Structure formats: structure tokens, C-alpha cells
Amino acid sequence: MESIISCRDLRHGYGEKVVLDGLNFDVEEGGIFGLLGKNGAGKTTTINILMGFLRPLSGECRVLGEPSHGIRPEVRRDIGLLHEKFIQYDFMSIKEIERFHSRFYPKWERGVFFDLVSRLEVSHDRRIGRMSCGQRSQVVLGLIMAQNPKLMILDDYSMGLDVGYRRLFLDFLQEYVRERGTTVLLTSHVVQDLDKLIDRMIIIQQGKVLVQGRKDEFLASFRQFRLPSSEALDRLGTGGPVVALERERSATSVFGYCGRAEMAAHLSGLGIPVEDMAGVPMEFEDAFIGITGKY
Amino acid sequence: MFAALAYKEWLKLRLVFWVPLGAVFVALGLALVGFRHVNEIIGSTMLWYDVALLDKVFYSDLKYVAVFAALWFALFQFVPECTGKRLRLLFHLPVPRRSAVYFMVGVGMSCVVAVCLVAAIGVACIVGAFMPVEAVRTVLFTCTPWFLAGIPAYLGTVLMIMEPAWPHKFLHGAATALFVHELTTTSMQGAYEYSLPIYALACLLWVLPIELAAFRFKRGGAW
Predict the structure, then answer these.
(1) How many folded domains does chain B comprise?
(2) Which fold has domain A3-217?
(3) What is the pTM of this model?
(4) What ipTM score was computed for the predicted complex, to two decimals?
(5) Helices and strands of chain B, counted as H and E runs
(6) Mean pLDDT across A137-152
(7) Strands A251-256 and A244-247
(8) Domain that holds residue B81
């Protein structure tokens, strides 16, 4: 499958803080791709580099075959970009902002924009600056959809949205992507919404890739086992099949890409009693926290 | 595409364009009152004496209208464009970055020039009603540096708004303030008559940094 986005050995930092440390990933055509990570993991930095708003210290990103720092205007027509916090021209009304954007995009679909915006039940003469964050999110999504792009990049689409507007946003997005086969790259810190939304993902932490691939494969292979605390368990670190650990007062959760038998054999070999070891079913959010840690 | 960019600028300026123009009319009104006061109450001989021998300037209220118009237009154009990193919206539009930025600057400069033209025509008509054409010429030479100050004032304000780094903002602001002060420092008639071309060329120094500020903004302000 053709890569719509390709990042190779991306490195960036602010002062002495390393944000991206040799990041490599590809986004293939079609479907919804999640760029996930905890706050400060480097998601927005990656998006900024992808859109040419930041020059990486080293490495290269290509978007629709163009180097990210020099995407030609004709190619930008095919990229719908949702900027963080839904920024738009606050001085324009709904009508004016549609009229303004429509002139730039040959495949503009006015009906798509007004179909979405009309559901807000606000006057089309209402200024963007006088709308709530939720209402603004629908206007911005409407603008991106009407543009009819090949690629949508949605940077932290959930920021400032309550659960109702988040659901509305995602319902529209999913339907649109299913109908048109648009490729979407999104970031969000609200992971529970993404379970039903994304097909493929990359989870980054401290600028490095923790997980990359299909979300369902990750969920099928990543397991959590819970063991009562013991002295031997307290000495356990990551390594072998143990990918992550979460210690609580009376129990410890061990995470890994293996079945119960393999994990039990590894832990027994380290002298850890495994008689009370139990598998714990995980939702996507649990798996995300398991691999990235709570802190 | 440039029609769409022009539409955006029109949306920002349509309501506020008239304010600097109003300031020009107020300044012209005061100049007219000054001329009429001396001419009709004190006498035309005294008007000649004031203008020709004492170098008295009855239109000094026009001194800052171009600078005011420049600040006004730059603020109303670029504050909504740059706050909250909104300039990224412009840079993501499918138009060449440089063309888009200079188009906006061109629109703002045209507004400043339009205000200055109205002021120049107005003051020429007022002076022409009381004095011969040689006096009109001198008045226009006296006003030109004041109007010229509108160029660095506009571009300097744009630079200060657009520039992402505070030290750069400060440098642009300081350089602009000094140059604008230099152009508006005297009301002496025809004081800059022979140095105007040099000052006009110096104004062009403010054009190139616009591209650099836009570039620095796009690249996150570090280079």
C-alpha cells in the first residue's frame, strides 16, 4: 500500500529536552491512523514538523510525496488540517468563512459544510469568535470536509470538547471517512474515544515508538496479568516478555505480548510465585495506560 | 485565490477603514480654521508674513495622521491574523506563502497611501485657496516626510506583530520608532526637500524583514 506520510529518523528537542528521538513511521492510504502518547510525548511536535511549521533537528518527513518543509500549494489543497484548539479566523461569520475557503479548493462541497453547520442551530451570520468551542469544532470540521481532501490531519481534535460534541465530531468523521476513503491522521489525549475510531496507530513515549501497527492486533496480543505483591516481584523489572509493570499497594500488574503460560514460566524462573497470577481483560484505554504507564 | 485574500482583508478593514480618514478630515478642518482665522480676522498680509517669513505651519495636525493610519491598519489587519498562531491558517492555504503575506501588506499599504493622498489633496486645496502654487508645492514637500513615515510605521508594526521572538520584536520596534521620529521631528517648511529620496529609499529597508518574520513564524521562530 502507498505511504501517504512517511517519517524517517525524526529528531527534535527544545533546549536540552529531547522530544523526538529517531521517530520512524508510515501512514498508509485509507483509514484512520492514531498518533498517540501521553502529554508531552511529542505528538504536536510531530504534527508541526509534518505541516512544515517546525524544522526537525534531523530526519525527514514526506507528506503526499513532498518534503514536509516544502509542500507545494497545489498539494496543500489535498491536506485538510485541523489546528490545535480549532483556531480559525474569529472575525468571520459562518457564511463568510465558507465563502472565503471555497475559493481555494476546486473540489469544494458547499453542501457538506452547511449540512454539518446547520445542525448547530446558530445563525449563519454568527461570528466564529462568538461561538463556543464545541460549535467552532463543527465549523472547522465542516470546512475540512467540504475541502474534500485526500488526507486529514487532526491535531488534538478533542481539546476543549465535552462528551456530546466529541461524539458528534467523531460520528461525522467516521461516516465521512467510510464513504470517501479519506486517510486521517489524528492525535488526541482522550484515548477512550479512539477504541472504535482508529484502525492503525503509533504510540510514542519520550520521542520513541512504543507500539506501531493495527490497533486490533495490538489489543489481541497485549496482555495484563495481576499478581499479589511479593518481595521477588518487587525486584522484577522490564525485560524478556515483561514490557511494562504497574505496581500498586497489594498487587502488581505485569504487561507483555505473550500468553499466560509463557509469562508464568518467565516469572517462575525468577522465583516469583505465580499460583495466584490472573489474566485481566483490557479495554483500549487500559492497554494504553498499561504500556505508557500512569505517570 | 487573491480575490479570496482580498475578501479577507476587506472583512477586517471594512468597518475600521473610515477612522483614519476621519482623523484626516479633522486635521484638515483644523488647518482650514487656522488659515481662515489669520486670513480673515488678522488679515492676508499677516498670513503672508506668517507663512513666507516666519515659516509658520498651519497644518501641523497632519503630522501624525499617516503614522496613526499605519498603526491602525496594521493592528486591525495583523492582530486577528497572528494571535493564537493563526498565521498558520494562512500558511496552510494553497497559495505561495510569500505572495500571501506581501498581498496582505500591499492591501494595508494601499490603505495608508489612500489616507495620505486624501490628506495631501486636502491640504493642497486648502493652501491653494489662500496662497499661490509655489506655496502649495512647499506645503506638499513639508508634509511628504510625515506621510512617508507611514511606510516604516506600518511595516514596523506588522513586523512587531508577526515576529515570534520578543528580542526581534523589540529591535523592530526600536528601529521603527527612531526612524519615524526622524521623519516627524520637525515642522519646518520644506526641511526635508533635498533628502527625501534618501529617506524614501531607507523606507524600503522595512520590506525584506517581513518575509524573514513570516519565515521565522512558519518555522517556529528558531534559526
Answers:
(1) 1
(2) Rossmann fold (3.40.50)
(3) 0.86
(4) 0.86
(5) 11, 0
(6) 92
(7) antiparallel
(8) 2-29+62-218
